[in-house]
Amino acid sequence: NNDSAEPTYDVVVVGAGFAGLYALHSLRRRGVSVRLFEAGAGVGGTWFWNRYPGARCDVDSADYSYSFDDALQQEWEWTERYPTQPEILRYLEHVADRFGLREDITFGTRVTSAHFDEQSGLWTIGTDAGSETVTARWTVMATGALSTARLPAIDGLDSFTGEILHTAQWPTDGVDFTGKRVGVVGTGSSGVQAIPVIAQQADRLTVFQRTPGFVIPARNRPLDAGELAAIKSDYPARRQLQRESHGGWILPPPVGSALQTEPEVRVKEYEARWAMGGLAFQTTFDDVMTDLAANETSADFVRSKIRETVTDPDTAESLCPKGYPLGAKRVCIGTDYYETYNRDNVALVDLRSDPIAEIVPEGVRTESGLHELDTLVFATGFDALTGALGAIDIRGRDGTTLRETWRDGPRTYLGVAVAGFPNLFVITGPGSPSVLSNVVVSIEQHVEWVVGYLDHLREHGARLAEATTQAQDEWGDHLTTIAAGSIYQQADSWYLGANVPGKPRVFMPYLGGVGNYRNLCARIAADGYRGFTTT
Ligand code: NA7
């Protein structure tokens, strides 16, 4: 036993997005030595990489921001209801500067391995920067839940002679579509945001759609100074509401049950939420997300809006989502999305009736013929929740790899710890509510809980902490119980890993909401961090 070995750093943090920056800041304030490794050339994580046209958060800017420092939240001026990618990136750059975080960040360096050594009780971190390895007592994976971009394996992809882009790996100096024939594959949140903006610039835009989404209008608008000032003056109460809420955002409460409301009144209520814009539509009634028949009333309303908006009836029918409940795949929030299909330079290819046969040097060949393209944009999403961790060679006790441990689906305790991987913490991991929430609220909770646990361990002189298999199994059973029978099981979503061929079909997020999750974590901490063993 080599207990006296001194690590290079007390903690290594991986990733400089919302989670990693806050983890770095919180840990430094405790006087522990920290090094953060970031693959990108700058801070921002998601908001560093996703620079596609139209990229924007679909949570209100006043809510999608840090709450941990009052001066920060008072001084930052959000300009629109929903922040654009450049604005969020500027905000995170400001945070990094304001708290002097950059000096502890190594940019342009991707962590490729993390191996636990039983003898020393330390983690050895390897990077793509070459031979240098560092050791740390604690490792915090702030690698993101939606950070490993996925290109589908389509025959002939490499033969395409035009430009290939992925929305989540967008060139930092932007792309000019003027005069170009552009194809977009994918109509999830990213495609829905990018399509209307690309359509305005490109010569021609062809959208290749596999599954139509439910697209709710964003109703974005500038924030006037008075409105933002009012929010700021009430921030403590607003933040408290966020933390106690289900989703971490402030939405108007549901107006009763869809099924018990008269059809004409029901439509009026949907109209009101449609006019409000954003995520509030999904919670118009309290049974939309729990009862299939109630859900169908909201789906019908969206389909009626599509048919009303899109002038070509065949295109409208292709755009109508059918066969899965609204919200079972994340609803998309769009601006002029359906209207865009009325433009002369936009065409929709419905891949369910006209599938892609292959990609050829000139473009995409579907069964009906060739679509010639200069640029092909993939808005095809991510290997969600487990992709970024799976890309790192993580080995715990006895050299066991995380990849092997999670072969049949991820197992965690609270989404933050994994049995067999001592002193490793995950922020926004599978088993946490993060991807079903305003992720900034989840991130602050996760980081504060993990850092609080580190304080506790240091106070008690513990060198190693590890989730027990029993606690992890119980958490897994709890996740399964609350997800069983939920409408989320009824769509092939990334929540279930269904978007990645061969990935085990397991519902990965915690469905109980951020408020319940926070209370549960607080109780576990109060019980002396039940579910962990320490040495
Ligand atoms: P999503 O939501 O995973 O959307 C990906 C889209 O790409 C979706 O429409 C997919 O259709 C489509 N897709 C994926 N593979 C293919 C292939 N092989 N052929 C055709 N179409 C394909 O990713 P986003 O980036 O839009 O959003 C991710 C999250 O980021 C979002 O939920 C927000 O939380 C922020 P499918 O539905 O699989 O049939």
Topology:
Layout: E1 9-14, H1 18-28, E2 34-37, H2 46-49, H3 70-75, H4 85-98, E3 105-106, E4 111-117, E5 122-127, E6 133-141, E7 163-166, E8 181-185, H5 189-201, E9 204-209, E10 215-217, H6 225-233, H7 235-244, H8 263-276, H9 292-309, H10 313-319, E11 332-334, H11 337-340, E12 346-350, E13 356-360, E14 363-366, E15 369-372, E16 375-378, H12 387-390, E17 393-395, H13 402-405, E18 424-426, H14 439-459, E19 465-467, H15 469-483, H16 514-526, E20 532-534
Parallel strand pairs: 1-2, 1-6, 2-3, 4-17, 6-18, 7-16, 8-9, 8-16, 9-12, 10-11
Antiparallel strand pairs: 4-5, 5-6, 13-14, 14-15, 19-20
Helix pairs in contact: 1-14, 9-10, 14-16
The structure holds ligand NA7.
Pfam families: Pyr_redox_2 (PF07992)
Keywords: FAD, Flavoprotein, Monooxygenase, NADP, Oxidoreductase
GO molecular function: oxidoreductase activity
